Amino acid sequence: MGHPVTTNPFIIMLINMSIVFVVLIGLSAMIRLIHLCDPTNKAKEVKKPAAAPKAAAPAAAPAAAPKADNSAVIAVIAAAVAAYDSEARIVTVRPIESSVWKNNARAVALNNTVC
What we know:
This protein has helices spanning 9-36, 39-46, 71-84, 100-114. By secondary structure, the chain is mainly alpha-helical. It is elongated and about 85 Å long.
């Protein structure tokens, strides 16, 4: 009774992999069943807007998204620069489309965790 059924590693691998895939298939079936029985899906279907008449005038171009008010951020940046260097003159403040700061922060974090 204390003897294993098999010692062949390939049979053990096949048994373990089949168990994993059966569980994954079962989870997939449960997700699909939940998707079919979703009570919020009916609420989404009811709220569909009515179709617009075909003779209507063409829709106007969508308005540009309003720009965020960054005046508080600009004030903080200006105060920090003024505190650091009293002779500095801020010409413009604009976002830079670069990943340099993000990459630098990642490198610093890695250096801090490795050392």
